[in-house]
Write a structure and sequence with these properties.
The protein has 8 helices and 7 strands, in the order βαββαβααααβαβαβ. By secondary structure, the chain is α/β, with parallel strands linked by helices. A hairpin with a 2-residue loop joins β2 and β3. 36% of the residues are buried.
Length: 190
């Protein structure tokens, strides 16, 4: 789906990739984290080539919040969040990061023991974003975070994205909702 693709995301930016269904937006995200292997070309971060292997991408500071959330429905909210920190061993800081997520999405604190599969779509998206943040990424990849959400929840998710970026996390945002995406992005690619 992708050929001759070249783009740059600078530190601290929100960069949006917009396009129609089937244009390769999700393929791009999956390739950046190593779920798909590029046939040619390179992926670099801070001037260093990144090998396309999922756990190495996380270790390098890249985290993907996938389209359609892909939570573990039979695990609790807390268990799903903790899976995002699977490479970390700093228990105290993990708890601090959970509190930061609760400040972004207060409803999650009330739902910690609830199975993720029983949450509303908006709450599931909050858990997915929280799980992505638990690895303390330098670059957060968000694939269609507004997909299937009611307008009020879309606003809440995009407010959280702005807040995450303001705290120093670089964001690559793939989104069909061009109006919302362009409203928060520093730059965009079509």
């Amino acid at each position: 789906a992708l050929r001759d693709l070249s783009f740059t995301v600078r530190e601290g930016e929100i960069v949006s990739i917009i396009g129609r269904n089937g244009a390769g937006k999700s393929t791009l995200m999956w390739t950046l984290v190593g779920l798909l292997k590029p046939q040619t070309g390179t992926i670099t971060m801070e001037g260093k080539k990144i090998r396309p292997v999922p756990h190495l991408a996380v270790a390098a500071g890249i985290s993907l919040v996938p389209e359609r959330r892909r939570l573990f429905p039979n695990l609790t909210v807390r268990e799903n969040l903790r899976l995002g920190a699977y490479l970390r061993r700093d228990r105290g800081e993990i708890l601090e990061d959970e509190e930061k997520i609760f400040s972004l999405f207060p409803v999650l604190k009330e739902r910690l023991g609830q199975y993720a599969g029983t949450l509303s779509g908006g709450q599931q998206q909050m858990v997915a974003i929280g799980r992505g943040l638990m690895s303390r990424p330098r670059v957060l990849l968000l694939d269609e975070p507004s997909l299937g959400l009611a307008p009020l929840l879309v606003e809440q998710v995009f407010r959280a994205v702005r807040s995450i970026a303001a705290s120093g996390t670089t964001i690559l945002l793939v989104e069909q909702n061009a109006l919302e995406a362009l409203g928060i992005a520093h730059r965009a690619y079509v």
